[in-house]
Amino acid sequence: MLAPPQNFSTMLASPMEPLSLVIKKEDLIPGISDGVLAILSPVIAYWTYATFFHIIDVYELAEKYRIHPSEEEESRNKASLAEVLWDVALQHVIQTIVGYCVYRYDDVPTTGHELHSMWNWRQNILPAFIPDSFIWYAYIYGWSALRLSIALCIIDTWQYWLHRLMHTNKTLYRRFHSRHHRLYVPYSYGALYNDPVEGFLLDTAGTGLAAIVTALSPRESLILYTFATMKTVDDHCGYRFPFDPFQMLFPNNALYHDIHHQNWGFRSNYSQPFFTFWDKLTNTQYQFVSEYQDQQKQITLTKYKEFLERRKQKKAGNMAKSSSVESDSLDLQDETKKLQ
Predict the structure, then answer these.
(1) Residues 95-99: contacts with CB under 8 Å, at least 24 apart
(2) Mean pLDDT of the chain
(3) Is the pLDDT confidence value at 59 over 70?
(4) Do 235 and 276 meet the contact criterion of CB atoms below 8 Å apart?
(5) What is the tens place of the pLDDT at every residue in 85-104?
(6) What single string gives the DSSP state of each residue in 7-26?
(7) Percent of the chain whose predicted confidence (pLDDT) is above 90
(8) How far, in Å, CA of 270 to CA of 257, rounded?
(9) Of 50, 147, 229, 237, which residue has the fewest beta carbons closer than 10 angstroms?
């Protein structure tokens, strides 16, 4: 964490404006601009994080926390994995092209003006009782955190109302949003399984608008885009991990969104991907959320016990088969010796 320079308080108290030498800000990764990195990072994060859950799914590494059993995922979902992957890849292509076009018109990130801005805060904006150290940390970290928090609320607001419109308007639902609801049992790769038009409006435009309105820098945009992407994947992961930071910090989590994907809950829980305040304010939250969570725990526990029993029986069967093969091998050896 960056600490204020030794002469920081003296500089703030001086009536003379500090000199500023504004230069281009160094990129996080030499050779790749922060703007381009902000475009690529959410795509990389999506496929990496979704693949992490896919591995857990395929190798049955966390059945204790699965929301729906694997056989239900296979029987109820109406879209194949190939269809899902194709739509996600297409959305990422569109998202990357749009992001690059906007990046071409962005200003070059600069540095060297920070101390002058803090001096201006002290001299013209903040009261004298505010500590100098507060000004430093508020400017370096707090200002970014505040704008990122506002951006999260903008994303939630944008997605709630557009998502709700996609459900209440039958034409929009049939033409666009019904595609996403072919996944009755969500899984990680399906987080961005959308019609391309809806994907652009809901995710690309909504998140980009939040970054523009809050005037985020390329590095701040990188944080926002990557965080929002991973949160969306987590909401569709199909697991309710007690140690998952996304599910611990946000009320809108995988189990909350799972309700929306069910036949009896798809006209509720429109909020995504972070908070639930719009559902609560407009009375669209599923009224039995707590009961469903408790019930799902019991269902998961029952299915997990069944899974353990199946695995035990399978293991016993494999051991018996192996023992039978060994016995046959010994018999063959005995017969061979007799012939000799």
Answers:
(1) 95/42, 95/43, 95/199, 95/200, 95/203, 95/204, 96/39, 96/40, 96/43, 98/200, 98/204, 98/208, 99/38, 99/39, 99/204, 99/208
(2) 90
(3) yes
(4) no
(5) 999 999 999 999 999 999 99
(6) THHHHHH-SSPPP---EEPP
(7) 74
(8) 8
(9) 147
